[in-house]
């Protein structure tokens, strides 16, 4: 039985007929079978290699002097992958979609080829040869346009076609996967380095721990082409999982290779909690509030900050938890009597109407709404915006898109019932404003990532008649 039959690929399969494999590399150089020398993999043999995520198979669906196609098929072992990852989670679709796991396998299986070494044909590694790369299912967060922006500047002709969710149901639209074909004259080592770096960049996900050594890998694999790439910053951010310190280090090294300077990004040591309080107080000053509600005041950190501002003449903190109010009382007891007398505490819930909370200049819900079960959000809207009806309402909540930069998983706190994207927060806030007679404007709190936005999002509602 020949190698093609063993792998389930027809012996007459050509360059374009490879729907069952994750990656094929084809050439029409003369003789085309010299591709085997460059890859250090003999065309007459099927070989298997153990990787961290499963088993990689290399075989040749077609190998003659006119056309030679090498295929890399990665069979992922979800059980082994789950055991190797924190939390034990596995990834269901990685057997079928190219991404970071395929890039790791490619770097392992074709390590020698990527060094540009070829003992049997020493003239070949430095020669650009006609290549065609086919990836039938590439995970891509950015669509066909992103694939064009990443590969075209490197000399590739790009044919990126979205894969439909269901070919039998065209109305369902397209999936996040691409059928990607790259053609061009390239040195094979360069082509492999392009794929090694850009596959996880397309996916914008790495399914393994990203540490400081990833900076060295990026500079080593991209040093010949990444410094002058127009998407250098985006590639660096995505490859390094948006870890800001690593990204700064990589960009500095790439800039040095390019002979340019990168202005170092200012580093802020201001804690995010303090930055949120600063933003809330600035918004209260801007709207001229004097009587302020802190709804869901917790242990009283914001109350203490508000009490330091003499412009706020009456401050009321509420919480549903008696323990939180006790902690707030202890914190406030440290204040001078003339300051403490402007602050009072009240046992109350943001989901039940409390007539004693009506008529204030402003109400603050700082990191509160994400602790409310989603079905109870209409009750919060009714209690705060329709019953208490302050002139202004200031809301802050986490931006879930930023979580990877903080090392967070789905949510930042185990008591968070949800966390919103920027679009979801805007949609909720716009709806509340329209239904309750308020206008709303938005702000950002904390360091802003160009792709993921700020860690905290802020909305300031103002009652129209106010």
Automatic annotation (TrEMBL):
EC numbers listed for it are 2.1.1.386
**Entry-linked Pfam families:** Hen1_L, Methyltransf_12
Q: What is this protein called?
A: Small RNA 2'-O-methyltransferase
Q: What is catalyzed by this enzyme?
A: small RNA 3'-end nucleotide + S-adenosyl-L-methionine = small RNA 3'-end 2'-O-methylnucleotide + S-adenosyl-L-homocysteine + H(+)
| Boundaries of every Hen1 N-terminal domain copy | 21-255
Checking Gene3D superfamilies in the record gives: Hen1, N-terminal domain, Vaccinia Virus protein VP39
- For this UniProt entry, which segments traverse the membrane? none
| PANTHER family in the cross-refs | HEN1 (PTHR21404), SMALL RNA 2'-O-METHYLTRANSFERASE (PTHR21404:SF3)
Tell me the organism. Actinokineospora diospyrosa
